[in-house]
Design goal:
The complex is a heterodimer of chains A (308) and B (508). Chain A is mainly α and 308 residues long. Helix content of chain A is 71%, strand content 0%. Chain B has three domains: 4-241, 3-Layer(aba) Sandwich (Rossmann fold); 246-336 and 422-508, 3-Layer(aba) Sandwich (Rossmann fold), CATH 3.40.50.300; 345-420, no CATH class. In chain B, a hairpin with a 2-residue loop joins strand 21 and strand 22 (480-486). Classes of the chains: A mainly alpha (308), B alpha/beta (508).
Chain lengths: 308, 508
C-alpha cells in the first residue's frame, strides 16, 4: 500500500466515522437513562432524507441541519412516549420505528422524485482549502467538512455533560436506580424523555451528516445500511462512555473505509464479503467484551413510577 | 407554646386501598416536635404504606395530612423534601454506582446548571458527619460501603436537606449492636434539636429503648398509642399480634452425639463480585442439632449456604455430606433441604402454581412423571397432602404461588424442602419479612427437623431468634468464623463483639 492510499484511508475513516459519532453521542445519554433507543437507525435514515430535502429546497445547509434536528426531536419524543410513558418493549418498538422509517423514506423520496440523484448544497470545509496542501495531516484533517470537526469535538462535550453537570449526574442516577432517583426528588420520567429526545436529535443529525457531507444525494432503499445498529454496538463496546464510544465508532469507520477501498482496488474477494467486514468486526468486538463492560443497571427495563 | 405548636406532623383518617388489600384503614397519627414516635406493627400491617404516603410516594384515597399545623398535599417526594420530611427506607434508595457524596446532592440543583461543583457540598457533608458522629467517606462508590455505612448515608442525605421530621423504616435490621447504639445516639441528638423522628420497627426492645410514645398498627388500623414509660413488652405484643405471644428460648431434649452429617474443611469461596467471601471455614454439623449462624448481613452467610447446597463453586477446601463429596449433591437435589434467603427469586417460581412449586425438585421421578409426561393427578394429591401437613393457607394447590402471603409462600418452600426428610437442612433468613405467627411456625418446623435427627444450619441476622433456637452458635464476620458459643450460655454482648470482628475463645 502506498502512503497516499493510507492517507486517503485515514481521511475516509474520519469522514465515515463522523456520522456514527454524532448518532452515538445521543444514544449514550438515552441508554444511560435506561432507555435503549433502537429506533436510531430509522431516525438516522429519516434525517438523511430530511437533510437532503431541506437543503434542496432552501439551498442552505444550516437550515437543513436545524430542520433535521427538529424532526429528530419529534421522532425522539414519539419513541419516548412509547417506551417511557406506555412502557412498550424497547427493542420491538425500535424495530417498528426502523421499518416504518424505511418505508416512509422510500415513499417520500419517490414523491420528491425531481430531486432524485441531484446533488444538493453540502457542508462546507471548516478550514480554507489551502490547509489541505499541508503534507499528510492536510488531507486527513483539513479536507473535512464542518460536520466531521463537530463530531470530533462533540464527545468531549458529551463527557463533560455526563460527568460534570447536574443533568448528567441525574441521567446516570435515573438509569442505574430510578426508584432511588425518584425518592431523592428527581423527575425521573422527564429526565428519560429528555435523554431519549436528545438521542433522536443526534440520530437525525448523524443521518444528515451522512448525506450532506459525503454523497450529497439520497439513495432509496435504506441508505444508512444498518449504521444505526452499529452505533448500538459501539455504545456497548465503548462501555457507555462518550469518548470511548466515539473511538469505537471510528474503528467501524476505518473498517468501512477499508472495505470500500478494497472494492475499488478490484480485489478478487466478492464485494458482498467485503461489505460484511465492518459488521463482522463489530460482532467480534462485542463478543470479546463480554463481562468487561457494565451496563446501566436498569438498561432496557421499563420503569413504573407507581411501583415503589 | 400552645398544644398545636408542638405538633410537627398529624395524619387524619388516612385510607389507602390497593387491589385486594386495605393497606391503611382510617389511620390517624401525630408526631410532636422533638419526640421519637415508635410505629410498631407486624410485617404487612401497613406501616410502610403509611410512611410512603407521608413521603409522597403513594397518594391516600382519603384523609388529611398536616405539617406544623398546616394542611398539605404531598404529591411527590420532592414536595415532601420541601416540607422538611426525610425518609430512610428499609430497602435503601441509593444509586450504587454513584459516590456517597453524589447520592447526597442528587436532586439538589447546583448553583450553576453547567457546573457541578462538589467542593462546598463535600465540606458541608463532612461537617454533618462530624456533628452526628456518623462518618461516611464521601468519595467512595456506594456499592463499596457496608450496609451500616449505607444506613448512615441515608440519614445524612436527609439531614443534608435539613429534614425536620425523619422517618426511619426498620433502621436496625442491618446494624450490629454497636452500630445500633451509635444510631440511638444520633437520634437523641436530633430530638434535642427539636427535630422529630418516626421510628418504624417490629422489635420491641429497641422501640422501648428509644421512643417517647408508641403507636401500634395491626391490619391497617391503629390499635392504640401508649407513652413508652407506661408500655410493657407483653402488652405491646398483645396489641401487635392480637393474642399473647411467647418468645423465650425453646426447650429441647438433648440429642446423642452421632457421626457428623456435614463436615466442611478449610473452605474458601468468592462472592459474585469476585472478592473473597469465605475464608478458611471449618464446620461440623451433627444429627439432631441446630447450629445458628449469627452476623450482620453480607458477611459470607449467603456464600456459606450456597457452597453447602452445591450452588456455588468453592476455590479450595472440602465439603462432605454423610461422607459424600458435595459436588455430587446437585445430582439429587432432595439430598439437602435448602430454604434460601430470597424465597421469591431463588426459592419459588412465582408464576407457577403451589402444586407445581412443590414438585420442582422431583418432577422427573415417579409418581409425578411417567416417560417424561407429567401426571397431574399425582401432583395434585401430593400438593393436597403437603398443604395439610404444613398448614399452608391457600384456596387450593392450583393457585399461583405469587398470590399467597409471605408466610404461606415460605411454608411452600419449607414443605418442598423438608418433606423428603433430608439429612442436612440449610435455612437462610428463613423468617425474614414474616409476621410473628408465621415466624413461630417456621421455628417449630425447624425444631421438628432437629427432633427427626436432621442437622440444621440456621442462618439469621436476627440475633434473638438465633439465640432462642440454636444448640450452638457460630458468628461470621467478613467471611470468617469469629468463634463459637454454646446456645444455652450465649449472651448478646459476646456475640455482638464477634459480629464486629473480635475473636472470642470458644466457650463450648
Amino acid at each position: 500500500m502506498s502512503p497516499d492510499m493510507i492517507i486517503d484511508w485515514l481521511q475516509a475513516t474520519l469522514r465515515w466515522g463522523a456520522p456514527l459519532i454524532l448518532v452515538a453521542m445521543g444514544e449514550v445519554f438515552a441508554e444511560r437513562s435506561g432507555i435503549i433507543n433502537v429506533g436510531i437507525e430509522g431516525i438516522m435514515l429519516t434525517g438523511a432524507l430530511a437533510g437532503i430535502a431541506v437543503s434542496f429546497f432552501t439551498g442552505n445547509v444550516f437550515l437543513a441541519s436545524i430542520g433535521t434536528m427538529l424532526l429528530g426531536a419529534l421522532l425522539g419524543l414519539g419513541v419516548a412516549y412509547l417506551t417511557v410513558s406506555r412502557r412498550t418493549n424497547q427493542v420491538v418498538t425500535g424495530l417498528m420505528v426502523n421499518l416504518a422509517a424505511l418505508g416512509g423514506t422510500n415513499l417520500l423520496f419517490a414523491l420528491l422524485s425531481e430531486s432524485r440523484h441531484e446533488r444538493v448544497a453540502t457542508f462546507p470545509l471548516l478550514f480554507p482549502a489551502s490547509f489541505s496542501e499541508i503534507p499528510v495531516i492536510g488531507p486527513i484533517l483539513f479536507r473535512q467538512p464542518v460536520s466531521t470537526w463537530f463530531a470530533l469535538i462533540l464527545p468531549f462535550f458529551a463527557a463533560y455533560f455526563l460527568y460534570r453537570t447536574d443533568w448528567g449526574l441525574n441521567v446516570r442516577a435515573v438509569g442505574d436506580n430510578p426508584k432511588a432517583a425518584a425518592t431523592a426528588g428527581l423527575p425521573v420520567i422527564k429526565l428519560k424523555y429528555e435523554a431519549v429526545i436528545l438521542s433522536g436529535i443526534f440520530a437525525a443529525l448523524g443521518g444528515a451528516a451522512l448525506t450532506l457531507s459525503e454523497v450529497g444525494y439520497f439513495a432509496s432503499g435504506g441508505m444508512t445500511a444498518g449504521r444505526g445498529f452499529v452505533v448500538l454496538a459501539a455504545v456497548v463496546v465503548g462501555g457507555w462512555d462518550p469518548v470511548r464510544v466515539a473511538l469505537a465508532c471510528l474503528v467501524f469507520g476505518a473498517a468501512d473505509a477499508a472495505q470500500l477501498r478494497m472494492q475499488a482496488m478490484g480485489s478478487t474477494i466478492p464485494y458482498q464479503f467485503l461489505q460484511m467486514l465492518p459488521y463482522v468486526i463489530t460482532l467480534i468486538a462485542l463478543a470479546g467484551l463480554v463481562g468487561r463492560t457494565r451496563a446501566p443497571k436498569t438498561w432496557g427495563a421499563p420503569y413504573d413510577p407507581a411501583d415503589i | 407554646m400552645t398544644q398545636n405548636d408542638k405538633i410537627a406532623m398529624r395524619m387524619e383518617g388516612i385510607t389507602k386501598r390497593f387491589p385486594g388489600v386495605l393497606a391503611n384503614d382510617r389511620i390517624s397519627l401525630e408526631c410532636r416536635k422533638g419526640e421519637v414516635l415508635g410505629l410498631l406493627g407486624e410485617n404487612g400491617a401497613g406501616k410502610t404504606t403509611l410512611m410512603n404516603i407521608l413521603y409522597g410516594l403513594h397518594q391516600p384515597d382519603s384523609g388529611k395530612i398536616f405539617i406544623n399545623g398546616k394542611q398539605v398535599t404531598i404529591e411527590s417526594p420532592a414536595k415532601a423534601i420541601e416540607l422538611g420530611i426525610g425518609m430512610v427506607h428499609q430497602h435503601f434508595k441509593l444509586v450504587d454506582t454513584l459516590t456517597a457524596l453524589e447520592n447526597v446532592i442528587l436532586g439538589i440543583p447546583s448553583e450553576h446548571p453547567l457546573v457541578l461543583d462538589l467542593a462546598p457540598a463535600r465540606k458541608r457533608f463532612l461537617a454533618l458527619c462530624e456533628e452526628y458522629d456518623l462518618y461516611v467517606d464521601p468519595s467512595v462508590e456506594v456499592w463499596r460501603l457496608s450496609v451500616g455505612k449505607q444506613q448512615w448515608l441515608e440519614i445524612l442525605k436527609a439531614l443534608y436537606r435539613d429534614a425536620r421530621l425523619l422517618v426511619l423504616d426498620e433502621p436496625s435490621a442491618v446494624l450490629t449492636p454497636a452500630e445500633g447504639e451509635q444510631l440511638f445516639k444520633a437520634i437523641r441528638k436530633l430530638t434535642a434539636e427539636e427535630r422529630s423522628v418516626i421510628f418504624i420497627s417490629h422489635k420491641f426492645g429497641e422501640v422501648l429503648e428509644i421512643t417517647d410514645r408508641i403507636t401500634v398498627i395491626r391490619d391497617g388500623h391503629v390499635v392504640g398509642t401508649v407513652p413508652t414509660k407506661e408500655a410493657t413488652y407483653p402488652e405491646l405484643a398483645r396489641m401487635m399480634v392480637g393474642r399473647p405471644v411467647a418468645m423465650d428460648r425453646k426447650s429441647r431434649p438433648l440429642a446423642a452425639k452421632k457421626d457428623p452429617i456435614l463436615v466442611m474443611e478449610n473452605v474458601e469461596a468468592m462472592s459474585d463480585r469476585g472478592l473473597p467471601a469465605l475464608k478458611n471455614i471449618n464446620l461440623t454439623l451433627h444429627p439432631g442439632e441446630i447450629v445458628g449462624v449469627a452476623g450482620v448481613d453480607g458477611n459470607g452467610q449467603l456464600e456459606l449456604a450456597e457452597c453447602i447446597v452445591g450452588m456455588r463453586k468453592r476455590t479450595s477446601g472440602t465439603i462432605r455430606i454423610q461422607g459424600l463429596n458435595v459436588d455430587h449433591v446437585m445430582d439429587d437435589p432432595s439430598f439437602v433441604g435448602y430454604i434460601p434467603a430470597d424465597r421469591q427469586k431463588v426459592g419459588l417460581f412465582l408464576a407457577l402454581t403451589v402444586a407445581e412449586n412443590l414438585i420442582v425438585k422431583d418432577y422427573y421421578k415417579a409418581p409425578f412423571a411417567r416417560k417424561s409426561v407429567l401426571r397431574y393427578s399425582a401432583i395434585r394429591q401430593h400438593a393436597k397432602d403437603l398443604i395439610k401437613d404444613y398448614n399452608i393457607k391457600t384456596p387450593s394447590g392450583e393457585v399461583e404461588v405469587a398470590n399467597l402471603s409471605g408466610g404461606n409462600q415460605q411454608k411452600v418452600v419449607i414443605a418442598r424442602e423438608l418433606s423428603d426428610q433430608p439429612a442436612p437442612v440449610v435455612a437462610s433468613q428463613a423468617t425474614r419479612g414474616l409476621d410473628l405467627g408465621a415466624v413461630e411456625s417456621v421455628h417449630n418446623f425447624l425444631l421438628a427437623e432437629r427432633e427427626r435427627g436432621a442437622a440444621v444450619l440456621f442462618i439469621s441476622t436476627e440475633l434473638q431468634e438465633v439465640m432462642s433456637l440454636s444448640d450452638r452458635i457460630i458468628v461470621m464476620f467478613r467471611g470468617e468464623v469469629m468463634g463459637e458459643v454454646d446456645g444455652n450460655t450465649a449472651d448478646v454482648d459476646t456475640i455482638g463483639q464477634m459480629m464486629l470482628g473480635e475473636t472470642a475463645e470458644v466457650s463450648a
